[in-house]
Amino acid sequence: VQLQASGGGLVQAGGSLRLSCVASGRIFSINVMGWYRQAPGKQRESVATIISGGSTNYADSVKGRFTISRDIAKNTVYLQMNSLKPEDTAVYYCKHSQFGRDYWGQGTLVTVSS
Which of 16, 13, 21, 10 is nearest to 76 (CA)? Predict the structure, then answer.
């Protein structure tokens, strides 16, 4: 499984960005996709996840501001990020999990200026 993430960039505080991640390869119908982020000097953390059935989970820090969604037909997961804050600045990675294996995308940088 290969993942290609896109959509990062520079945005002012209060602005919005939409990240996309396309999965290719042997994709099984039962899987979990998610977004993680890693800020400079910090550990990678989970931002949002979505399972194939559609259930979602969010980090407390992004609840009400970020929305994860997926297009199963396109094997694509999205992260709509609104009301961005400087503390959201990080490299964002998508992850695809199936049959106990994790696959990571290359990361896309999100920078939020104050």
Answer: 21
Instruction: Give the bridge partners for 84, in sequence order.
Output: none
SS3 per-residue string spanning the chain: CEEEEECCEEEECCCCEEEEEEEECCCCCCCEEEEEEECCCCCCEEEEEEECCCCEEECCCCCCCEEEEEEHHHCEEEEEECCCCHHHCEEEEEEEEECCEEEECCCEEEEEEC
Q: How confident is the model at residue 92 (pLDDT cuts 50, 70, 90)?
A: very high
Instruction: Give the Cα separation of 107 and 30 in Å (integer).
Output: 23
Which amino acid type is present at position 45?
E
pLDDT in tens, 8-66: 999 999 999 999 999 999 988 889 999 999 999 999 999 999 998 889 999 999 999 99
Can you tell me the distance from the alpha carbon of 89 to that of 93, in angstroms, rounded to the nearest whole number?
13
